[in-house]
Amino acid sequence: MILAAPLPMQPRGWQQAWRDSVRDPRELLALLGLEAEAGAVPEAALAAFALRVPRAFIGRMRHGDRHDPLLRQVLPLDDELRTVPGFGLDAVGDGAARVARGVIHKYEGRALLVATGSCAINCRYCFRRHFPYAEETAASGGWAAAVDAIAADPSVSEVILSGGDPLALATHKLAEVTDRLRAVPHVRRLRIHTRLPVVLPERVDDALLAWLSALPWPVAVVVHANHGNEFDANVDAAMAALRGAGATLLNQAVLLAGVNDSVDALATLCERGFDAGVLPYYLHQLDRVAGTAHFEVDDARARALHAALVARLPGYLVPRLVREVAGDASKRAL
Ligand SMILES: *Cc1c(COP(=O)(O)O)cnc(C)c1O
Ligand code: SF4
To answer: Thinking of the domain 95-333, which architecture would CATH place it in?
Structure first.
């Protein structure tokens, strides 16, 4: 496939683009020509978890379509207020796996740093709506406690920057933790889980690329795109730049009812991602956190969708279908 030439990015910095995000659902709906829907904005859902969407992401939504798969990921709905048995506050047992402030060590060899509670976008299906970030970010205190915990455990060979979204931190803040980690000989790999190159591609700027290029470890960047429409020429350019800085790019999606729960949507996501140089990694079953039940796809349908993907795509374009189960030694294959 031949991609359109990348559009020039906005000359302003990414923080400005982030500050310009839309926070008012009425404004979001008006931008999409959906003013008629604005009367139905559920204030209680909005109060529980704010709306936040970068304009670059809104630009990829279909005008006039209230079922747009990107819109559904960010628009508050009354469904979020329903109490559904089995949907709780700590769905994946993170509380139990905490080893230091902002450090979660669940799996062999991998320590995950909750680098920050911030994100550029608020995704309605996210566990983050309930996580106690104020006490829990690894960046607080100059990362000292987090890096000490990693240094004290020689079994840790991979450090995962997660969040929130670690790329919501300023690049100099990211450099602080990697500078400290250079002194830890058993660290061999760095992984970054981020949605920013997709939702705010302006984030992939010269300073970020210079930092990435100078890291002493192989780096994997796991971007979180859930739908093929999340890619456009600016996102392609951001992905190309990340690869140019030496990163291996992977995608992790969440299977979401009304967003990507069809074979066509999933196949397009995997193929469109590869056009941008991103290999599929995981397709996650939803974490069962309160307020997200309307996004759930049951396991039988999830398996059927995955089997259809296996039948349609080359093996390297099929993500692993997994669920996170508290207490397991790895993500659980379905
Ligand atoms: C998901 C997760 C990881 C990474 O798991 P992989 O299977 O290696 O992608 C690491 N730590 C925590 C706490 C996680 O939730
Ligand atoms: S952690 Fe990821 S899924 Fe959750 S709100 Fe942030 S970007 Fe969205």
So the answer is: Alpha-Beta Barrel (3.20)
Distance CA 161, CA 191 (A): 6
Q: Sorting pLDDT into bands at 50, 70 and 90, what band is 77?
A: very high
Bridge pairing between strands 158-162 and 219-223: unpaired
**Euclidean distance between CA atoms 103 and 206, whole angstroms:** 29
C-alpha to C-alpha distance for 79 and 85, rounded to whole angstroms: 14
**Ligand 1 contact via 191 beta carbon (within 6 Å):** no
pLDDT by residue (tens digit) across 297-329?
999 999 999 999 999 999 999 999 999 998 899
Q: Which helix (H) or strand (E) holds 158?
A: strand 158-162
Q: Ligand 1: which residue has its CA nearest to atom 9?
A: 331
pLDDT of residue 2: 45
Type of residue numbered 285: Q
Which segments of the chain belong to CATH 3.20.20.70? 95-333
Q: Is-contact 291 332, C-beta < 8 A? A: no
Query: What span, in angstroms and rounded, lies between the C-alpha atoms of 57 and 267?
Result: 21
| DSSP assignments along 103-170, one per residue | EEEEETTEEEEE--S--SS--TT-GGGT--HHHH-TTGGGGHHHHHHHHT-TT--EEEEESS-GGGS-
Ligand that lies nearest to the alpha carbon of residue 51, given by its number in the listed order: 2
Cβ–Cβ contacts within 10 Å for residue 134, how many? 8
Across the chain, mean pLDDT equals: 93
Question: Could you tell me if the CB of 112 is within 6 A of ligand 1?
Answer: yes
Quote the pLDDT of residue 244. 98
CB within 8 A of 46, min separation 6: which ones?
25, 76
What's the pLDDT band for 94 if we cut at 50, 70, 90? low
Whole-number Å distance between alpha carbons of 225 and 248: 16
**For the chain, how far is it from start to end, CA to CA, in angstroms?**
32
- The pLDDT of residue 195 is 98
pLDDT of 107-148, one tens digit each? Answer: 999 999 999 999 999 999 997 777 666 667 899 888 999 999
Ligand 2 atom closest to the Cα of residue 193 is 2
* One-letter identity of residue 77: L
